[in-house]
Amino acid sequence: MGRDPFALDGKRILVTGGTRGIGRAISWQLACAGASVLANYVHNDAMAESLRAEAKEAGLAIQICRADLTSKKGLDALAAEVGPPDMALSALVHCAATGVHRPIDALTTRHLDWTFALNVRAFFDLVLLLLPRLREGASVLAVSSEGAVRAVPFYTVVGTSKGALEAMARHLAVELAPRGIRVNILSPGSILTEAWDAFPDKEARLEKERARTPRGRLATLSEVGQVAQFLCSDAASGIVGQTVVVDGGKGIVG
Question: Which domains are assigned to the chain?
Answer without folding.
Answer: 12-252 (3.40.50.720)
